[in-house]
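I am writing to request your help with a piece of structural work I have in hand. The matter concerns a single protein, recorded as an amino acid sequence and a row of backbone structure tokens. Could you please explain, in whatever detail you think fit, how the structure tokens follow from the sequence? Thank you for your consideration; the sequence and its tokens are set out here:
>
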Amino acid sequence: MSPKPSPGRYRNGRAGNHAPAPQRRRRWPWVVLASVAIVLGGAAAVGGVFAMQALEVRDDLMAAKARLGSLTDAYKDGDAEQLQIIGAETLELTADADETVQGPLWDAASALPGVGANISAVKLATEATHIIVRDALPPGLQLLGLMSPDKLKLKGGGINLAPFQQAQQTLPQIRTVLAEAEGKISAIDRAELHPVVDEAIGQLITVVEQAGPLLDTGEELLPIALRMAGSEGPRNYLVIFQNNAEIRATGGNAATSTVIRADNGKIEKVEDETVEDFYIAGVSGKLRSDLPKETLRLYESDFAYNAQNFTRTPDFPTTAGMFSQLWEQTNGTELDGVISIDPVALGYMLEATGPIELEDGTEINADNAVSLLLSETYERFGTDGRAADAYFADVASRVFDKIASGAWGPMAMIDQLTRSVDEQRIYAWFPREDENAVVSELGVDGALTVDNTAATQVGMYVNDSSYSKLEYYLSTSMTVTCDAAARTMTTSLSLASSVPGPNLSGYTLGWRNNRLGLPRTTMILDVLSVAPPGASLVGTTPADGDIARWDRDGSEKGHALASRTMLLKMGETKTVSFTSVLPEGPLGALQVRYSPTVTQTPVTVDSSCSALFPAAG
């Protein structure tokens, strides 16, 4: 999994004149070498032999930086031999630089009034750099070699856990080396440095200080990740596919799912009577839910009846708990986790895997995945549910086999998964506390927050109420405005229908519409507003939904919630707004959530909110 995206106020949008901060990439050891070289660039003014030595050190470090710059290509190519060659050449260069600064001229120059502190700082920084390259780079490169894409694959599908188990031994070693280097540069008295020298040394210190916590995090998370991959015994996970064409709060109708087993890195589908019994229980309303009546009344009566509707709540842990409870009630065992993705995320993953050939000779790829799965299939098979189910089963099986094979670039896959997380298309829940803490840290728990300390969470969500696949043609956008003096916030969701006409299959058009006297091309949308914890909803525009008797108000997990049903005709655009009064006290950065659609959901946070919410970190 990718690092947790900051879910704050600028996610997927903008806030007045404040631009989103660019994502910072970890630059060690490039910054280490570049920082020292910058310092040495000015040392030539000292004169004579010392100046020549300073230039030699600068040239060695710049050359080392250039060599390290080629590591990425060698890793992507899976060239372990080239990784070692780069490491050896880099070490030779930093060793030369380190040998030079150990000379008597550097000790003498370090004692000179005025410039001595700066020269001493350069010497210590060079020594720290060499320590890192000499003692941390070799085990790091060895680990990279073990983690080359071809060595991470398991025959038959899955991930080779051996490199990650080796990393458990290597990371502490690298952490010890960094601590030694940090000891060198911590001796530098920056108060006496020239601003140019101080800036460069500051960059080096920052990089080393940031690397330590990263390694600590790796040491902490690796054992958890290995257990989740089945290193200590098999794990069974339910993967649900949310169909955005029949939209739900966290994505869509969850009628399609699969159970996968992870056993010591090997990944395979579970296809036995337990899965069949679970599926039948889900479609026939067998869940004995323990949700409070207050929660059940917030949603349509089918919420806790059919598994495909468990995603009507915006709280993914509640959804996952319902699936987990149904599995336990059906099979007498516990799931080890529930993971959710949508077809748009699947399309992104196909960017990394490449196209996949299907049984009928066609292919599914990054460009056609969404239209194929959410529109073309329904038009092709119409109301022939068995044919459609067989087609979906073939697609799911082949996509799973491709992903499980590991025949894709890990960095490309991480990029696509990160993109999916940023668009709120992937969620996960695990019953073990330490494992679920990881998904929370990564920002994929999909949970309604308990307070406003870390973030002030607000959301607007949509549930299909027409029993259709019309939301393939739905696009949304969201805006947030504030009145700091009144301590109020207004969230608005714009809904636009691009339904092309009535000549769609009966499976796509609204099943519920006829008995409500509505054209089957009209979307019936249950729009939910969820206020931050402790806030109260005080206004809605329009005041009532288009079917006023379906209006619902209440709270879920400490969040005030209001539901208004909107009728969206073919080609129509509507906006629904909710105003809330924020609680007293400090507020965390604004976190905006929404239901992901087939297209992007632009989010705009007005600059008027900056007085209430700190910028996202």
The radius of gyration is 28 Å. The first helix runs from residue 30 to 41. Residues 18 and 607 are 8 Å apart (CA to CA). The longest strand covers residues 235-248.
